[in-house]
Amino acid sequence: MNGIMQGKRGLIMGVANNHSIAWGISKALAAQGAQLAFTYQGEALGKRVKPLAAELGSDFIVPCDVEDIASVDALFETVGERWGSLDFVVHAIGFSDKNELKGLYADTTRENFSRTMVISCFSFTEIAKRAAALMTDGGSILTLTYNGSQRVIPNYNVMGVAKAALEASVRYLAADYGPKGIRVNAISAGPVRTLAGAGISDARAIFSWNQKNAPLRRTPDIDDIGGSALYLLSDMSRGVTGECHYVDGGFNITSIPTLEVLYN
Ligand code: NAD
Q1: 146 is catalytic
Q2: Residue 190 CA: which ligand 1 atom is closest?
Q3: Which helix (H) or strand (E) holds 40?
Q4: Positions of the chain with pLDDT lower than 70, given as ranges
Q5: Residue 11: enclosing H or E segment and its boundaries?
Q6: Ligand 1 atom with minimal separation from the 65 CA
């Protein structure tokens, strides 16, 4: 197969099912000739990820729970043994206790704050470090974030704080690894109906608000996000690092609701 990802090998972390953002990204990459390895969190999700990987011609699937650093180390050991090097990584992982994705941010517990930060933010740094060691010929590392990092979005709470730290991590990692030709970027996606998205209270109302008020009058689908990820993971974006690229139909540029919404 010919394509702009021909000859490139990458690791996709965060496919749970065929609604996952990471799945949209995987399809876009595979369509351009990339060779993919997938991780899955736990055996139940593994049963879903295996046939999806096979659909894209991959039999390389490895368990990894980022809360368990031994499993992260084992993952990169396996990738190193099988491939020797790596060209790109997608980190599409996030988690917080859904009981705290509602109500006041101020009520976040210490336990869930730490857990959310480790899974949704620090895991990116741990993964980038291990991936960079395998990126002997440069590379591209991508994570997923949400505008709740920059603005207050009801119920997003501690995830917003974790995403703000994640976006700062992107900038620091981009500075760390730039001299090695390794680029680090984020996509800030508008709301998408996924397992993780469903954990946030009032997700439906926020989804519909975005559809009504985004300049494009719609929310992104996983293929929209896949297209932008393809750009950031390919050599097409070779001069870009440390960026947070919005794929949200333009919602982030708006201030007040549209006039249609205001007057109806
Ligand atoms: P999803 O539920 O399909 O994917 C989330 C993934 O995180 C799952 O594959 C899950 O297994 C993984 N994960 C959670 N805890 C983990 C752990 N301890 N170890 C390993 N993996 C773990 O949902 P999604 O919406 O595709 O989420 C992907 C990323 O996109 C997340 O970072 C999310 O915050 C971000 N994002 C989502 C939206 C949205 O509206 N859905 C918007 C912007 C950003």
Answers
A1: yes
A2: 42
A3: strand 35-40
A4: 1
A5: strand 9-13
A6: 19
Distance (Å, whole) CA 53 – CA 58: 5
DSSP state of 132: H
- Show contacts of 18-22: CB within 8 Å, 24+ apart: 18/52, 19/192, 19/193, 19/194, 19/195, 19/222, 20/92, 20/194, 20/195, 20/222, 21/92, 21/144, 21/189, 21/192, 21/194, 21/222, 21/225, 22/90, 22/92, 22/144
Query: Which backbone phi and psi does 216 adopt, to 5 degrees?
Result: -80, 0
CATH of 9-263, picked from 2.60.40.1880, 3.10.450.50, 3.40.50.720, 3.90.550.10, is 3.40.50.720
The answer to whether 35 touches 8, Cβ cutoff 8 Å, is: yes
Reported ipTM exceeds the 0.95 cut? yes
Phi, psi of 141 (to 5 degrees): -125, 135
Q: What DSSP string runs through 146-174?
A: -GGGTS--TTTHHHHHHHHHHHHHHHHHH
| Whether 66 contacts 124, CB under 8 Å | no
- The catalytic residue among 40, 105, 156, 263 is 156
For the chain, what are the domain ranges? 9-263
Write down the pLDDT at residue 1: 59
Q: Say how far apart CA 200 and CA 206 lie, in whole Å.
A: 10
| CA end-to-end span of the chain | 51
Q: Quick check: is 156 catalytic? A: yes
Torsion of CA 219, 224, 229, 231, to 10 degrees: -130
CB half-sphere exposure, 26, CA atoms < 13 A? 27
- CA gyration radius, the chain: 18
Residue 91 Cα to ligand 1 midpoint, Å, equals 9
